[in-house]
Amino acid sequence: MISVRLVLFVCLHFATYKLFNCLSVKDQMYANIIAENPCFVRLNGTNQFGCTSSKFGNVGTLHLVTNSTDLNWLFNEGKADPYTVALPPKMFNREVLQSIELSAKVNGIMLLLNGTEQEVINNDNLQSNGFSPEDTCPNHYSGVNSCPMKPWNPYGTDILLQSWSFPIFVVYDQNTIKNIKDCFENHNLPLNNQNDNSLCALELKSHMYAAVDSKTCLRRTMMSYQNIRPIKFCDPLGDKNVYWSLKELHPNTPDQSIAIVAARLDATSMFQDFTPGALSTATSIVTLMATANLISEMLSYEDANKFSRNIMFILFNGEAYDYIGSSRVVYDMLDGNFPNDLIKLNQSRVGLFVELSQIHYDKEVVFYRPIKNNASENVIHFMNTFNKSLSEDGFSVTESKSTSIPPSSLHSFLKFDPKFPGIILAGFKDQFKNKFYHSILDDPENIQYGYDNSTISNTIANISTSLGYSLYKFITNSTYTGLKQANSSYVTKLLDCYVKSMNCDIFKSLTSPLHLPDSPPNYYISIDLITNTITSLSRLLFASFGSKIIDEVQDEESCLNYRTKQGFLPIWLRGNYDACYSTTSNYTDAVSPAFIIPDYDLSSPKYSTWTESVWHEVKIRMFLKQSFKLQIIIFVLGILVFLFSFVIIKKMHDQSGIHFNNQEVQSVTNY
């Protein structure tokens, strides 16, 4: 009995050793690639967009493409397909991707950002060609006018709104890019001898659960809830809008007594968690925040209460996806729920709507207004005041002659009221200056932030000052004669937060000792189950403007339960404030009405129907793929071993009677 146990112990120990040894061999076979930013699937009411891999990942021989010659070799002479193609940004365009799609020889793509953004732009000549994956007329299906002859986004390639049959990843870690290139050069060159060598290959895994369109994936999700283990296939896009008003909002607000200053809080790109949005979004947010801070200093709460008019600053979320946030605000206004069911503001209360769009470092501002004739007096007076103030600072201030208005939240309001008193202040004329609109290259260097901070900071400070003076006149019906101006150093600090890193001085002064991500904001709206970090931080920043401290509250828990008067909310500000404040700042839902209206037809273009696919695992692994000859040898040896095992088993079977009969005789004799 002891000997049997000893044998079992030895066998178990040997099997365990072999198991761990096999695992270590597996780990040595693969090298994990740092790649956390896949292209993923998004859907609307009629289509599917983005990228996905097969369930178990896509495997392909690595091929480095730097020009059209490399690509033509792959299509015409490459024999080691399927391939995984590594591209620089200059080759990442609609024509190349479509040719790859049609070739059926490529299993995946990696976009390599080798170097800083400026190096990438200079090396790939992107400064003249641009790099925008967006449509040439963003959101043109949900606007009030058609795309003009000169499209708003002349650098648009539309690849963001295509469905690709292979996974696409962006790789920007420089060591990882070096390893990929070294692997290709050491094992895959020369190209004409690939069948005789072991080749560098990649496995790209980013399988998306959703497919077809939003209606289909949501229906599948609902059907799966009937199972023991339900599966979610997609989620509606959504987050929160953020607003702050100079004084509290009342249910009995007079008509045309509120000025709304708006900007978008979101951007988008092809890749997960990689949406810098510097010029697309951030400069407009900073301009709005600097203006809100200035107006709170120009008009105290007590002074503002002397006048019947009010100002609301609002950041709309989800505007890149058919105006999710602004369309929800309009829907809530019509339904008597904006900003809540007690105040019930509607469009008739709005006397002026000013939207900030892509504020540029050039000293140029262009007015866009939908109504050229019979415009409201508030709009005309605002334009005159703003024009006069900013022109004195050496700016070019003009009004566009275009009969269309650019992509903006204003479209949502004009859909329901063509005479809505709205105007857009943009940093471009007729066409976007932003060559990297909704691109991963729309980062600080795109607004020249980091080289000469004073240019963009001074430009925004001047615009904010003129905007503040114009809003002051709207409130008081008089010209501001004080000395307060938007401070360029404060604007620089805001740019640090909204462009460079959320772990910045201003945000830390509101949140410490909480730890903030030391990374730029991700301006992608994400799904409605999550409130983005930049959304929460923007609300805290709004709350720091002109709010009154609540002296009788000494801790955060008591602050949350404190009852303020209507129109105010209690909020605990940490960091330098470390107290409870009464603020008008709050959230409203930025989820499309399409997902709250019962039995809404998701194929209707009236409201946004965008959803995001669910996925399980994202990874890239690099390994050596054995040569074709070696694979044949291994296959033949496998067959021989398989056949030899049959011979052994047959021989053992034929002789089993002898062995087992002898054993039986011996056992009986012993007994």
Describe the model.
With 671 residues, the chain is α/β, with parallel strands linked by helices. Helix content is 36%, strand content 17%. It is built from 19 helices and 23 strands. The strands form four sheets. The protein has an eight-stranded mixed beta sheet with strand order 16-15-17-14-12-13-11-21, sandwiched between helices. A seven-stranded mixed beta sheet has the order 1-23-9-4-5-6-8, sandwiched between helices. Helix 8 (278-298) packs across helix 13. The longest helix has 28 residues, at 2-29. The two termini are 17 Å apart. The mean pLDDT is 90.
Distance between the termini: 17 Å
**Runs with pLDDT <50, length 5+?**
none
What structural category do the secondary elements indicate?
alpha/beta
Kindly state the number of beta strands. Answer: 23
Strand order of the largest sheet: 16-15-17-14-12-13-11-21
Instruction: Compute the number of helices.
Output: 19
Assign a percent range to the helix content: 25-40%
Shape: elongated
Rounded radius of gyration (Å): 31 Å
Strand composition percent: 15-25%
- Major beta sheet, specifics? 8 strands, mixed
What is the mean predicted local confidence, pLDDT?
Answer: 90
